[in-house]
Amino acid sequence: MNSNIIFRLTKNTIIISQIRKDVDYKSLNNTNVIDIKELKFSIDYILHNSELVANFLNVVIIKNNISIVQINNMEIAKFVMDLINTWDHITKLIFKPDKNIELDVFFKILDNNYIREIECYTLANALIERLDMNKNIHVITREQNNFLSDFMKDNILNSYSDIYDKKVLVIKTNFKEVDIEDFKTFIAFNNNLKLIKIVSFSEELMTVIIKELVTFQKQNIVIEIDEKNNDLDAIFKVVNHLKKAYHNYLELNNIKFKLNYSKQYRESNFFKELNFITLKYIFLIIVLISFSFIGINYWRQYRDQIKIDKQINEINEILTDAEVHETLDDNETDIEYIDETDITTTTKKKSTYKSVYYTNFEQVFDKLLAKNSDTVGWLKVNDTKIDYPVVQGKTNSYYLNRDFNKKKNSMGWIFMDYRNDPVSLSKNTIIYGHNIKAGIMFGTLKYMLNSSWYKDKQNQIITFNTTDKNMRWQIFSIYRIPETDDYLKTDFESDDEYQKFLDMLKNRSIYNFNVDVNPTSKILTLSTCNNHVNRTVIHAVLINDEDQKK
Fold it and tell me: For 19-33, how does the pLDDT look when each residue is reduced to its tens digit (9 = 90+)?
């Protein structure tokens, strides 16, 4: 059994429905077109040809003067919103089922630039206000009793501004389903929360709270739990379990747990409290010592960066001596750097990109090899600061904390996986680098996940040269993923195993580059840590190589 999506045209409306039935792929004949008034596509076909399907349907919409979309199944709402968001003639959206619009679908609506009116069964007042304020979308609900959950009532969250500005939450009772959905909405849009006070404790409640804080990457929040009328053993057990399960996240994002003892408990446990105070001062002393070590660490990082900057300048002098380049015209490209404190803010800087094909790399590599015999290539990524020689150690740990001069340095260097063949190249050539906040090494690799970067065709070509070859690589996958090593394979037992590996990489991509990869392909992988739990990964396929000029 499989699912098909039906697009039915009636007057000025396109109606989208889901049907479940056996798929006759011969009758679908690849295009899946049944009738111009009733178009049927398999979900798999849409997933693999989303841009083609979206453009085809857009032509049908324009030709038939359609301005309204009606979604008949909430299960496919998030999926089809990706298509709808590309149709600039659609100004009205109708959700037919008598169900609430879930948060992930709401976020898809926020991405739409054309819709001006929505009809649905129900939607939280705060979300209606958000659509009205930010997108100028008028929302009509069929359900008249748009009541608040206990969570919303207890915290007086009657409007979007109430949600956005709230600093202290009080949770008096265990969550019901409607409370969970409203809590998710609150966490998604609030940017000022500092304290969550829990009056009635339960494991289910704590799990929901932590899960949503992690999902929306919230920081600097204290979770305060009342001791009164709660089981202390249960509190300690659940909190300790959550601390272990989410240790890295809680540490990095400063999420703290606090137990609020009642007056009665304090009076009956005075001596225990006294010991706690003693331990508290010991802890403060430890914290002060820790801050001293942090200060020393920052000084060492500053010292190491100065050394790296000096080496980069020396290497750039070698590169400049070997360049016979042509600078791009003023109107060809700008670099967009993202403000790390605000992902929506970009700053444009004039590109200093110079094509490597105007550089005498034979001369460059001769000088680099004289400085470091581990030099195996040169990597350049357009509209980033990534423009470095690549080295290869005998292990993958060697250049994690050594610079180009093989001196101890916390910044490390850009290095190739020790398992790779730098001459004939492996099936998967892997290059690593630290994500340095100052932007050196792979510190700007994360900017490649910005849509304004990866949708620029010029940026989709990576240059990686070896001592023998000048090569160009086409990006086919780009994503962020929790720490794993499944994309770091270099050897494959069969073409089938390699193709499955390539398909996995493509399916992870946050953007469909429509680039073919097959068992004859050689790929390049760039990998860096986004934080202690996530990795930023780029994959590109070799599309052109030529011998170094002798």
Answer: 876 555 555 444 444
Instruction: Give the CATH number, domain containing residue 419.
Output: 2.40.260.10
Asked if 187 and 216 count as a contact pair (C-beta separation under 8 A), the reply is yes
529 tagged catalytic? yes
One DSSP character per residue, 412-438 reads: ---EE-TTS-TTT--SEEEEE--B-TT
Predicted TM-score (pTM) of this structure: 0.45
**Domain encompassing residue 106:** 2-141
The number of C-alpha atoms within 13 Å of 471 and in the hemisphere containing its C-beta is 23
Residues 263 and 335 in one domain: no
* Domain stop point among 141, 170, 202: 141
The residue-averaged pLDDT of 232-257 equals 91
Length of the chain: 550
To the nearest 10 degrees (0 to 180), the angle between helices 50-63 and 77-84 is 70
pLDDT, position 389: 94
The residue type of 201 is: F
- Are 411 and 460 contained in the same domain? yes
Which position among 33, 214, 259, 529 bears the catalytic label? Answer: 529
Q: Tell me the one-letter amino acid at 135.
A: K
Q: 351 pLDDT exceeds 50?
A: no
Domain count of the fold of the chain = 3
Q: Is 456 in the same domain as 347?
A: yes
Res 18 pLDDT > 60: yes
Strands 68-71 and 92-95: parallel
Separation between Cα atoms, residue 539 and residue 524, nearest integer Å: 6
The DSSP line for 212-262 is: HHHHTT--SEEEEEE-TTS-HHHHHHHHHHHHHHTHHHHHHTTEEEEEE--
Cα 16 from Cα 57, distance rounded (Å)? 12
Classify residue 517 by its DSSP letter.
-
What value does the CA radius of gyration of the chain take, rounded to a whole number of Å?
28
CA-angle at 211, arms to 134 and 435, nearest 5°: 80
The one-character DSSP state at 16 is E
Closest-CA residue to 470 (of 382, 385, 545): 545
Residue 258, token pair as written in the block = 């606090």
In whole angstroms, give the CA distance from residue 174 to residue 82. Answer: 35
327 or 302, higher pLDDT: 302
- On whether both 134 and 212 belong to a single domain, the answer is no
Q: pLDDT of 401-425, one tens digit each?
A: 999 999 998 889 999 999 999 999 9
The residue out of 238, 253, 268 marking a domain boundary is 268
